[in-house]
């Protein structure tokens, strides 16, 4: 039992989730090594408990009482594990802070993660929803990961195909939800690097800064500045980033919507479908800057729901349900929720 001697009861999670919801965990264990996971699995009652694998808590909506065993991922370490003619292979442990890891790779001269600068949370959570921003998703730079399988007790290596990455989705949000504890993630960072500047905002920032040939650190600085201008800082206003995914619809549906709403914002996808800007739909439905109880819609970005002070998970859910209903009524488009509820 000694490997589990840091197990605690009734632990506050308020400082461990970026929404700032005052949740209490029934059981809480900081994970600092693999042996603890094996020991947990050997304990029949702990093995059967519902689990919440907790990283930085930046994509969660918690209930007041989280009736689960919360495993707080505190595994640390990062290194260059290999290189070949084309790539640097860089590995980081699950508990490493994502943004600090991105900045470290850039400082080492290994570009490739710069478009994903300033995304909150941990390295271990990055594959869960295949984090993405400004034209890059982690599947574009992902090599493999190691995970502890709670069902078999084994450590498995999973490649890109096994992770079934999709837009804000992976196998870890579907069939393997709460079963795999990601221990570390490896990235293949290209030696022949080209900046990814498909987003107009990024181009505009670089132009204003008089940077004609940006290196990866310039792109990172641009993205940090754009994000800071648009998104609320969770240290100041509780939130979990985008609350809904941008819905993808067929060209026919988009065409019909454009007929009634000529300013509709949409982006052509490689499949021929269109991604609609959910922030635009929510703004048009009249929700930007509005509140319902203690939860609200951020005034600068309608896709972000915020904690106006003392919001509970139920307050956030009630607001999200109302927004979904209003958007559906006006546009007949379903909004899917991005964060995970526990
Ligand atoms: P948590 O919130 O702790 O957990 C999220 C999910 O992952 C949970 O289901 C949890 O059980 C699971 N999980 C966590 N760690 C592990 C592990 N080691 N093994 C197995 N499962 C695990 N996301 C984007 O994609 N793009 C953005 O641009 C973006 N911007 C954001 C901006 C703000 C201001 C905020 C607050 C959030 C933003 N997000 C964005 C969402 C969030 O930052 C990411 O989803 C991030 O990867 C979550 O990391 P975390 O460590 O906080 O995960
Ligand atoms: N828009 C509005 N009103 C709003 C907000 C947005 O009309 O209040 C319209 C504007 O036309 C704007 C467009 O929507 O140009 C897109 O907005 P933005 O560039 O802010 O991006 P987003 O689609 O809202 C997505 C991701 C973000 C990611 C950014 C940059 C999703 C669900 N969200 O947001 O990811 O950082 O693009 O790539 O895909 C997250 O997942 O948590 C997240 C923050």
List the helices and strands and how they pair.
Elements: E1 8-12, E2 24-31, H1 34-42, H2 44-48, E3 51-54, E4 60-61, E5 65-73, E6 78-83, E7 87-93, H3 98-107, E8 132-133, E9 136-137, E10 142-149, E11 155-159, H4 160-163, E12 180-190, H5 200-208, H6 216-230, E13 239-242, E14 248-249, H7 251-260, E15 266-268, E16 274-276, H8 278-284, E17 291-292, E18 295-297, E19 304-307, H9 313-331, E20 340-341
Parallel strand pairs: 2-5, 3-5, 4-20
Antiparallel strand pairs: 1-2, 6-7, 7-12, 8-9, 10-11, 10-12, 13-19, 14-16, 15-16, 17-18, 18-19
Question: Briefly, what is this?
Answer:
With 342 residues, the protein is an alpha+beta fold.
Which descriptors would you attach to this protein?
342 residues; alpha+beta; Uridine Diphospho-n-acetylenolpyruvylglucosamine Reductase, domain 2; Uridine Diphospho-n-acetylenolpyruvylglucosamine Reductase, domain 3; 4 domains; 4-stranded mixed β-sheet; 27% strand; globular; binds flavin-adenine dinucleotide; binds uridine-diphosphate-2(N-acetylglucosaminyl) butyric acid
């Amino acid at each position: 039992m000694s490997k589990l001697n840091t197990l605690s009861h009734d632990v506050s999670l308020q400082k461990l989730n970026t929404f700032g919801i005052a949740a209490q965990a029934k059981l809480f264990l900081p994970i600092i090594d693999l042996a603890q996971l094996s020991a947990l699995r050997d304990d029949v009652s702990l093995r059967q408990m519902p689990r919440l694998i907790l990283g930085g808590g930046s994509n969660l909506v918690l209930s007041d009482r989280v009736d689960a065993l919360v495993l707080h991922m505190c595994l640390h370490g990062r290194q260059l594990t290999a290189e070949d003619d084309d790539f640097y292979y860089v590995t980081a442990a699950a508990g490493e802070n994502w943004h600090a890891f991105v900045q470290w790779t850039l400082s080492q001269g290994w570009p490739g993660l710069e478009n994903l600068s300033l995304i909150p949370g941990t390295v271990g959570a990055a594959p869960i929803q295949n984090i993405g921003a400004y034209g890059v998703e982690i599947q574009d730079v992902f090599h493999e990961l190691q995970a502890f399988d709670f069902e078999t007790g084994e450590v498995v290596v999973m490649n890109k195909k096994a992770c079934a990455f999709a837009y804000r989705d992976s196998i870890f949000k579907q069939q393997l939800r709460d079963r795999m504890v990601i221990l570390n993630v490896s990235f293949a960072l290209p030696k022949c690097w080209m900046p990814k500047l498909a987003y107009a905002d990024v181009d505009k920032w670089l132009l204003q800064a008089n940077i004609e040939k940006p290196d990866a650190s310039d792109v990172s600085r641009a993205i940090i500045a754009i994000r800071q201008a648009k998104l609320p800082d969770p240290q100041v206003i509780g939130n979990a980033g985008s609350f809904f995914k941008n819905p993808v619809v067929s060209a026919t549906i988009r065409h019909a919507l454009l007929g009634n709403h000529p300013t509709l914002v949409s982006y052509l996808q490689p499949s021929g479908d269109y991604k609609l800007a959910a922030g635009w739909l929510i703004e048009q439905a009249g929700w930007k800057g509005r509140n319902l109880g203690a939860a609200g819609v951020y005034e600068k970005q309608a896709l972000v729901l915020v904690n106006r002070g003392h919001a509970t998970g139920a307050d956030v859910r009630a607001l999200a349900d109302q927004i979904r209903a209003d958007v559906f009524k006006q546009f007949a488009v379903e909004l899917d929720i991005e964060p995970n509820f526990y």
